[in-house]
Write a structure and sequence with these properties.
Elements: E1 7-9, H1 15-26, H2 45-57, H3 61-68, E2 73-78, E3 81-88, E4 96-101, H4 115-119, E5 132-137, H5 154-168, E6 174-178, H6 181-192, E7 197-202, H7 220-236, H8 238-245, H9 247-256, H10 258-262
Parallel strand pairs: 4-5, 4-6, 6-7
Antiparallel strand pairs: 1-2, 2-3, 3-5
Length: about 260
Amino acid sequence: MASGAPEKFAIAVPDEVLADLRQRLARTRFPGEVANSGWTYGTNLAYLKELVEYWRTSYDWRRHERELNRYAHFKANVGGTRVHFIHEPGKGPAPKPLLLLHGWPGSVYEFMQIIPMLTDPAAHGGNARESFTVVAPSLPGYGFSDDPGGGMDPQRMSEVLHELMTKVLGYRRFATQGGDWGALIASLIGHLHTPDVIGVHVNFVALAPPEGARTTDLDEDEKKFLAELAAFRRDEMGYMHIQGTKPQTLAYALNDSPAGLAA
C-alpha cells in the first residue's frame, strides 16, 4: 500500500475517556499480598494504591496534553500503517534530520525536554551549526500511532520508519537515535539502509556470545557475571516471558484495567 502525505494532528483526549479512566481507577479491586514481602513478588500493594489515588485525583492530563501539543504533530499512512510523529524543524543554517526512537513501554514524551536543545542549540548555549530537525514517531502500535495489525517486530518497524523518513518526509539521508527497542530498530535501519543513514546513536546495547562460543575458559569475574545474569533472567524477567509467548492473554487484563496496566 502506498504511503500518504502527513496530516496535522493535535492530541485531544475526549472528556468522557478521562471520566471513564477515573471511574475505573475508583473501582479497582486490589489483591492481597504476602505480608512484609515488599517487591519480591511484583508491584508492592501500598505503593500501587498511592499511585492509583494520585492518578485518579491529582494527575492533570490536560497540562501534559498542552505540553505535548507545543510541538508539531502529524499522522501519515506509511506502507499501510498510520503512524503518529512529532516533526520539529531545526533553527540552524543546515539542520540534520534526526529520527528519535523510544522503546517499551515508552513514548515520545521521553523527548520533551531534549527536542528544543536539538532543534535550537544556540538558545541553550550550543552552536547553531549543530542543529537537528527532529522526527519523533510513536512506534507502530504505541501512543497515538494506530494498531498496525498482524504483529510487529523490530525489522518491520525499521522498514516502516525508514519509509517515513525517506518517502513520506523526503529526507535523502538522516541520523537516528534509539533506546531500548528503539535502539534495536535504529541499529537495523543503519544496517539495512546504510547509504541513507548519517549515523546511529544508541543508549542501550544488547550483546550475546556468538553461536557455539565456548564458555569453559572463563575467569572468575566472567563466571560471576554469567551467574548473576542467569539469576536476573530467572527472577526478574517473568514479564518478558509471558509478553513474548502469550501476549494476547495478558492483553485482556491490561486493556481493561488501568490499575493493572500501571502495575
